[in-house]
Input
Amino acid sequence: MIRCSLTIALVFISMAALYSQEQKSVLRLAEEAYSRQEYAVAGALYNRLARSRGDKMPVDQWMRLARCYQETGNFKEAAGYYQHIISRPDHPVAAYFAYGEALRQLQQYDSARQQYNLFSTVNADSIQLKAVALQSCDSSGAWRQSSGRVQLQPVKELNTPGSDLVSGVVQKGLLLMSTGYRTLSLNSGSEAHPATDKRTEQPYYKAYVYRQYSLGNANMYLEELLPGLLGKYDYHIGPVCLNNTEDTLYATINIQGQPVTTNSKGPANGVRQLQIYQSVKKNGKWAPLVLLPGINVAGYSSSHAVLNSNGSVLYFVSDRPGGLGQTDIWYAEKQADGTWGVPVNCGAKINTVAAEIFPTVNEEGILYFSSKGYAGLGGYDIYRAKGDKASWETPENMKAPFNSGADDMGLILKRNGYEGYLASNKQGGMGSDDIYYFTDPGYSDRFNPAPANSGAPVTTGPETGGEKPPAIVKTHTAEEEDDKRQLEQLKFLYNYNSTALLTESRKVLDAVAGAMKRHPDWRIVIVSYADSRGPDQYNTDLSALRCYAAIDYLVNNKGIDPRRLYYSNKGEQEPVNGCKDGVPCTEEDYKQNRRTQVTVIW
Output
């Protein structure tokens, strides 16, 4: 009996020792993964420890567990862990701020404010972040109220269960970076089991081009971007930027501590270091990628390279010494010999003690970027600022619908200025980061609605006191009259639910551009329509996008001054046949109503 009891005791002791060794092994793996920022892996290991140890697990390990969930976009779970942490008597003061951040990402601003107020610190940077966080909660009510003018919708044909972003607009379409397309047989070589990023447990980013970027067209043409140049690297590729002539490429690549030219896959894990590479196309062939001279700094990351409209300034993100926060936006100027000058920080008007990422510059020189260091709705918010280089006006939060409680980033504008894309991990998406398309039907910086008198002749004549003198009607030549008559008889059609210009459409617009160049005093109203299928408001907006597509072509392809262009979006109005709501029609009848015409303003 005694021998049996001793045997049982030894078994229990051995099991306890094995259990203790297992716990230490799991903890060691969790700590190592966390130090490498492999939050998905570390979070799973810390979660395993939490389930087995409960409150016996030290509070610093609970803090790391919560942060892992926060970093991977699981804000609800992170908030739950922070709530547990602050219920412990040994919780750190920093837990209040972290809990407030998680609640703000869930758009629970009143609760977040309570946690921020409990956070006390003497650190200057933390004091500044607390002030910004409280200001964010105070502003959230007004900022969440969208004006309704800007429409934001997910691009379902581009989104995957992974992470998807638009990194630029090129002649062929959109430049994309995605972790989700690697399983769609779109890549060079065999990738049945693509390499996985331990930070997110998703495949690494690769670069792609989407050739058709008008909404409403189901014919998606998606392919890997330059697979012979970019397709052979196993780690993150993107974002990618091209210059205006599309013969110079700048790519952000995660080198994982290895030179990009190596044939080795490098270490399984390593420092998450990003660097900017360049390739130049000569005689139709792309040269091998090389480190962008003068921009990268050994031991620090450089990424997210973009050019201003004329290619004279390169903006990028870096955590190098001399910055103001975690990551800053820097710039370099192109020199006379084509090289880039010494990088300069964009300054305190742009950069904060937190992180700035994903800069883009539109045709007018406005900088768009994402930051955690300004008052915002939560996570990364998108801001815009006028200026250049190191001289900027105060950045403006773009508010809803561009921003939410989650991470909103990577805003890209098309050249027409009223359409664009952004990425967000907000709730309700398909994956971890989804692409959203936006348009502003009320955009008036370049194009205006048709004048009220666009159907009547323009009259001129001075006014004097008393009665108005008779209007003097401007006379027109026979050639003008004939050109006007022929132009207003032209029209072009669209595919169903599409804004894409067809070959015949471009021929008509070429004729419009030719007439406008022959008659430089002419102004033109672009009038677009939709068929009767779908909601009335949707068709009104769709016809507006068709107007914009035509104007975009005339401005960017034919050089027409946008101040001479007006639009009128008619939606379902004025069908050329009997195809109205509730009337069965043939496809050809519907097609005749999906049209654009022009009206000349004398």
In short: The two ends are 113 Å apart (CA to CA). The chain has three domains: 28-120, 151-439, 448-462+470-601. The CA atoms of residues 70 and 103 lie 11 Å apart. Residues 151-439 form a domain with the Tachylectin-2; Chain A fold (CATH 2.115.10).
